[in-house]
Amino acid sequence: MTLLASKAAPPVEQAAPARKTLARRLVPYGYLSPTIVLIVVLMVVPIVMVISYSFRDNVIVQENSVFAGFANYTKVLTDPDFLVAMKNTAIFITVSMVAHLVLGLAFAMMLNTQLLSGVTKAIFRIVYILPWLFTIAVIAVIWRLLLDPSGVINYVLHSLGLINQSVNWLGDPGMALWAVTFINIWSGYPFFMISLLAGLQGIPNDLYEAAAVDGTNWFQRFVHVTLPQLRPVIISMAVLDLIWTSQQFALIWMTTGGGPLNTTEMLSTYTYKQAFSEYEFSTASAAAVIVLLLTMVLAFFYVRQQRER
Known about the structure:
2 domains, mainly alpha, MetI-like fold, about 75% helix
């Protein structure tokens, strides 16, 4: 018996280090578990529920919903209002992204120039970054007052003789989309400016000095030195801006509500109206899934670009 006990002891001694190794490997997952639980509860579960709703009919409104297959997706994709929202969203995000890039780069280069003193640069930085400090609600209220037919914008233009009568910028079907796009550009360009300014300050001066020695002018240095060095930042910011702008809701809802005559209807406002105005939660879920897929395409290109960097 003693001999058998002595032979059985070593496996018990070997099991203890194995348990310690397993416990050591599980420690990182213990630290990550609160975040994982939050992601599952706040993201994964709602997304799965919305996807399931999109394949059923009369969800939430009625207790016994029935499986509808792709009927909700067919209804959404053939809805003229959805197609108008798709077109408006494409125009809105494309124009906003291009304008954000151009204005952000222009102001960033102005703040990075050696021709201005430090005090002047500090003043301009405060002025340029002001639009980014306001919340969307404040921005919407300010611009609704400014663009009102009796507002400051019409008064100034009328005083300069540029218009003969007041323009209802947010109520005119021909002007509303461009008005909200302008507001979005105004509120979003500081983020581009700050990011591009950081990129400009990270470009070595040796590159500019070498280009100057080769006899290049400022435009050639901008094309062959500045832009290539800023390319990773520009691509990352452009993709992120497309994702963020495509999900813009508060600004549109608080300025025009998608009107007039659906001229400012976006995918976000269309989905909201389907859910909380029409109470078509199945259709709203299908529209939300379509928006999710479009956003995932943009996110894929962003992640791929980051990996290449």
